[in-house]
Specification:
With about 180 residues, the protein is of the alpha+beta class. The chain has 6 helices and 9 strands. Helices cover about 45% and strands about 20% of the residues. The radius of gyration is 20 Å and the shape is flat.
Length: about 180
């Protein structure tokens, strides 16, 4: 043990942890723990074993293809799909910067005793939800709102709330964080 939370791992332990990290899993051990915020691999594929993450596809023998968006079909409205931006390092930093202050204020207000504080906190949480959708939803397909093809903005402003919530869940799923992890 090097002291603190640092430890030298055996090759087998390191391979196990790297494999979990590549899959975007949360790794907890009695002697060491850390949280991986990204589903993107943090180690070269050769170190993570032969299993290739599902968002990387082999194109021929020499190229690996990565799509920066994922298409998520709606479970609520047949024929509707959401094009959601996948997480990248720069996008994660951008999202953290945009959400940080709103989340701090919401947490502060949630700790308050008054109904007004709790209502203000709920309003900030709703603003954070809208920020997530406008940040991560690239396109809505198969939905017409008031005679025009739906956009990210029109889904939030005039679309069915159930579809907005579904788009929000799809964006949050791409961030790689569960509801509990986002609260922490």
């Amino acid at each position: 043990m090097l002291g603190g939370r640092f430890r030298v791992f055996s090759n087998a332990e390191e391979a196990e942890i790297r494999g979990a990290v590549a899959g975007g899993e949360r790794v907890q051990r009695p002697d060491f723990s850390f949280l991986v915020f990204s589903a993107l691999p943090l180690c070269p594929l050769r170190l993570c074993g032969e299993k290739r993450p599902d968002y990387l596809s082999k194109d021929g023998e020499k190229n690996v293809t990565y799509e920066s968006v994922a298409v998520v079909p709606s479970k609520i409205a047949e024929g509707v799909s959401f094009e959601v931006a996948r997480m990248s390092f720069v996008r994660r930093v951008e999202l953290m910067r945009r959400v940080r202050e709103l989340a701090r204020r919401a947490e502060f207000l949630e700790a308050g005793n008054g109904n007004g504080d709790r209502m203000d906190a709920a309003l900030l949480r709703a603003e954070i939800d809208r920020l997530y959708v406008t940040w991560g939803l690239r396109k809505v397909s198969g939905l017409t709102l008031d005679g025009a093809e739906a956009t990210t903005e029109s889904l939030a402003e005039a679309g069915p709330e159930e579809l907005f919530r579904e788009a929000l869940a799809a964006v949050r799923a791409e961030t790689g964080l569960s509801e509990e992890e986002r609260k922490n």
